[in-house]
Amino acid sequence: MNNAMNFSGGPGALPASVLRETRDAIEALPETGLSVLGMSHRSEWFRGVLDEAERNLRALLGIPAHYHVLFMQGGSSLQFSMLPMNFLRASGRHAEYIVSGYWSAKAPVEARLEGDTRVLWDGRAEGYRRLPAADELQLSQDAAYLHYVSNETVEGLEFAGTPGLPEVPLVCDMSSNLLAAPIDTERYAMIYAHAQKNLGPAGVTVVILRDEFARRAITGLPTLLDYRTHIAARSVYNTPPVFAIYVLMLVTRWLRDEVGGVEAMAAINRAKADALYGALDAEQGFYRVHGERSCRSTMNVAFRLPTPELEAHFLETARREGFHGLEGHRSIGGLRASLYNAVTLDAVNALSEWLGEFRRREG
Ligand code: PMP
Fold first, then answer.
1. Residue with the nearest Cα to atom 9 of ligand 1?
2. pLDDT in tens, 123-142
3. Ligand 1 atom at shortest distance from the alpha carbon of 194
4. CA 20 to 30 Å from 246, out of 131, 150, 239, 240?
């Protein structure tokens, strides 16, 4: 089994205990004797799963009662569209975007379809190697919202602080770092993250939405594209991805019971990132980390070797050694190790050691 060494950018590694429990649940759930794949979304059992998933997320992230927790479909990409549909269209305001990488660049494209969209900062010309400093953002107090991506999955850049003005609703795509470390939840009007990195399998996207912000949404949208539909129906307006939500619930249990919460998780993630960046920095002339040091992501470590040929050779030998999912994103190439919550410190230590060995062999 290669699951322990899966460094994929997502869908990626899931905790071993969750995989075992999921395997059993596919045959039969202990509570119902039925396969999880055949459970009705209107069953009491599933209502219990949804409620526990929500409860666990609230406890893990400190989400207060005046926020809704929604389980939606369409991935994070649909949120790029739903956000401006609900909160920019006909608002009489403009929306602000920070473009700091491949994924955050996608969001304003959708917003422009809905209204006045201003990109406050764009790192593209610099190759998305750093994040903006606070004094590089010309923020205005009357924006409908400010949108940013807290962790750029492709380039491996992670915001250390939180941008924006307190009076402007802050919206964040946390697809690749939600649940990796504690966050100041109440600073945000809306947070969203698809499951397939730290939360579970693909198919479900978590949206955390402040009630007061949700009330500002325009009316007259298609039913399924209106956040209020999902709030009113408590995430079962139509058939939700029952299986994905079940596994997500197991992951939240694992994080609570086996890891001991998000703060404990953050300490482990820090140790993982330190080990890997340490190994790369030890061979600096050979390995080159994509992002500037001050913006390095704890979740996605994007790096290069001196030549594409060496990179191809690296990937091939890595696979033979049992390391999987190390190819960089198709937009920038190179290599990337994703260190999501379920990737263990042992796995990262093994990879770090092997980086040194590969360098000695090939360099
Ligand atoms: N945002 C970020 C930060 C991502 O990493 C990704 C995909 N990896 C997306 C959005 C798009 O997500 P989806 O495929 O769920 O639409």
1. 76
2. 999 999 999 999 999 999 99
3. 15
4. 150
